Task: structure prediction
Amino acid sequence: MLDRLEHAKALVIDANTNARMLVVSHLKELGVGTVRAVTKTRDARLALEAMAFDIVVSDNDFGNAQDSGQQLLDELRREQILPPSTVFVMVTTDRSYAAVAGAAEAALDVYLIKPYTFDAFAERLQSARRRKQVLKPVFDAMAAGQHEEAARLCLARFQAREDCWLHAARIGAELLLRLQRASEARALYTAIIEAKTVPWAKLGVACAEYAAGRAQNAKQSLQTLVGEMPKYADGWDVLGRVHLEEGQLEQALATYQQAMALTPTCLLRAQRAGTLAFYVGQRDEALRLLGWAAESGLDSRLFDYYSLVLLAFLHFDAGLREPLQQVLVRFEGWQAQQAQSARVQRLHLAVRALVAGLAGQGAEAQADAARLAQALDLPDADLEAACLFIAVRQRLLRVGLRLPDDDACLHRLALRYCVNKASTEVLVAMAEADEPAVALVRRAHEEVFRIAEQALTLSLKHQPTEAVRLLAERGQATRNAKLIDMAGSVLERHAKRIDGPEALAAQVQALQETWVWPINGARGRAAAGQPVTVPQTTRGPSLAPPEAADQPAG
Result:
């Protein structure tokens, strides 16, 4: 019999009344203190976002091809909503090899095929709880933020092949990636594959390759993986991110659409694909995906404000005043709740400018757009802020409204945010075929990379001091994270051959603290405010799922 379940909390997810009540009765008979039951995966997501459960029992079949317990589990794990200490039980009628293999791949805690007996349910649940108890020191370290210690415990268990070593290895490899120890993560994933081939380990190798800067190796590994397992949604998901980081927006969209086809109810993937569809000009697709995301997940913390602003742009383009006004009302509510959030203020300003512009209130629209432009000079203004300004600017121009010095503002933001091909292509996309604006952004991109090449040439000519000074000077003038981070890299690599390294190091660090680190700190916020990851600096991008923050609570 299970121990200490009187304090446990369980969530049951099943659309069938009889099956749902049967599971509830099983859990109560086992002594579980608190049992909550819901009928929809959407309600389950909201419940799990609101509180932690010790046990989750979900049916896999909800009578809808676009919804399943497996998709729910994948999303919960990807968004780090499901604590690693929670036991997840999947119940299904599917006895096929593909279903059983998929369950093994997903590393489910318990997989039960209907009909099952109470004894089988109790035994499997007990076994899963014992495994969680074995790994409790790892989970405790993670909960305390001691990720180094948690990784050490996982590695020790894997190396000794102690009880639950494969589970420990998976957690340890993910922790190593989070700790930016890419080479160690790759070695561990490779060792796991040698010991027991599993798809998630192959995916981990690709993520580690990419985090270490070996993009082509990562892409080849991912293409092989999705070729071998075309129904492995996470493989398509990460491949889409690689395409995006390379600035291949259309390829990234096509890849995300593959993942969406496999997981049509995944809120975050819908937003990513919808955002990319907006960028590449597929507005009907963007409206479909972002509209579904807003309708299905507006109260979820996985829903990103930026998706609603893109919908506002689409409403403006279609001349739809009423839905645009509804978006503004929503933002005014969020603004009241989160008055200290600079991001919410920027998004609110953008929507308010659109409403005023469509209503013919030119002075009000220009005033809000001007405030957006002023926000671009702040340290925490990110790529999203630049996208907002460009998109609002383009739409106000269509209704005959021009901001004073808007070309100069556009030039400044392009110099700051053209840090790589991906960010440049996103800015170009937001300019929407406005040739003068597109040309200005591309010239800024060329200027930034010309400075980087000049610095590289100086470094190769054994003039690292001049290289660092050039990068620091131009980084300060443009506030471009690529140039500032490059100054730090050259300084670190050639410190022994640099004149006055202490003074230069202090200058570069001050620039990083002012113009780079405030943006990096916001990357967890759905990738600097976007449902789609766009790197802000020259550091290796994280392929781990973005954590939602600064989001509506419902």
